[in-house]
Amino acid sequence: MWRRLNSLPLFFSQVRRADELKICQAFCTEIVKPVEGESYSRRNSPFVAFVLGGPGSGKGTQCLKIAETFGFKHIGAGDLLRKEMYSGSENGAMIQKLMTQGSIAPSEVTVKLIKKAIESAENCKFLIDGFPRSEENRIAYERIIGAEPNFVLFFDCPEEVMVKRVLNRNEGRVDDNEHTVKERLKVYKAITLPVVNHYAKKGKLYKVDGTGTQEEIFERVRPVFTSLRLST
Ligand SMILES: Nc1ncnc2c1ncn2[C@@H]1O[C@H](COP(=O)(O)OP(=O)(O)OP(=O)(O)O)[C@@H](O)[C@H]1O
Ligand SMILES: O=c1ccn([C@@H]2O[C@H](COP(=O)(O)O)[C@@H](O)[C@H]2O)c(=O)[nH]1
Ligand SMILES: [Mg+2]
C-alpha cells in the first residue's frame, strides 16, 4: 500500500535499565533525518513514529504534548480497541476479555483499526501509541501497511514507578488494577521488549528516561521532534 521509507541513522551505546534484552540507546544530536526533498503524504507515505514503553510509562501523556506541540496525529492503539470494545461490535466482548486479562488483541484487529485511523486523518504525521505490542503485531503491520515506522520512541521507566502511576490513574479502565497490571508487565517483558530490541538493532530506536515530572520528560522528548525537518 505505502512505499517503504528509508531507515534513519541513529548512533548507539549500551543500555542501563530495560536491560533484559540489552536494548541499545540512541544518543545523538541529529536524531532523525528525513531524506532530502522527501515529502510525506497521508495516503502514499505518512511519517510514522511508534511510541512504546511499559504500562504507565507515560506514552499517552507525552503523545498528547507531542501532538499539540509538533502537529502530529495521536493514534492510541489501546484507545482504538477501547472504542471498539464499547461500540458493541462483534469484537467487543473478545477485546474486553483480553484487556481485562492483560493480554494482546489479535494483530489483524488492531492493524485494521490503525489503518482506518490513518486513512481517515487529515494529517501525514502520526504517533502510534502502544503498538506494536509483539513481534507478531509488528510483522502484521508491516505486511498490511507495507511500511516500517520512521522511528520508535521508547519510554524507559522502572516497574515500581509504572505500577504506581497505573494504580493512581482513576480513569475507569478495565485493566487499571493490581492483578491486570502484573499480567501486563509480564506480557510487556516477554513479548513487547523484543520489538523494542528489534528497532534498536535496526537503528530506529530513541530511548527516553521516563522518570521525573511530565514536563521534565517532555524536555527530553522535544529535541527528537525539533530535529525533524518534515517538508509537509
Ligand atoms: N511523569 C509523570 N509523573 C507522574 N504521573 C504521570 C507522569 N506521566 C504520566 N503520569 C500519569 O500516570 C498515569 C499513566 O500515564 P499514561 O496514561 O500516559 O501512561 P501510558 O504509558 O499511556 O500507560 P498505558 O500503557 O497503561 O496506557 C496517568 O494517570 C498520567 O496522568
Ligand atoms: O496494540 C495493542 C494495544 C493495546 N492492546 C490492549 O489494550 C490494553 C491497553 O493498551 P494501552 O496502550 O495501554 O492503552 C493492552 O493491555 C492490551 O490488552 C492490544 O491488545 N494491542
Ligand atoms: Mg496509554
TrEMBL record:
The keyword Cytoplasm applies. It comes from the Eukaryota. Gene3D superfamilies: P-loop containing nucleotide triphosphate hydrolases. It is an enzyme of class 2 (transferase). PROSITE patterns: ADENYLATE_KINASE. NCBIfam families: UMP_CMP_kin_fam (TIGR01359). This is adenylate kinase. It comes from Anisodus acutangulus.
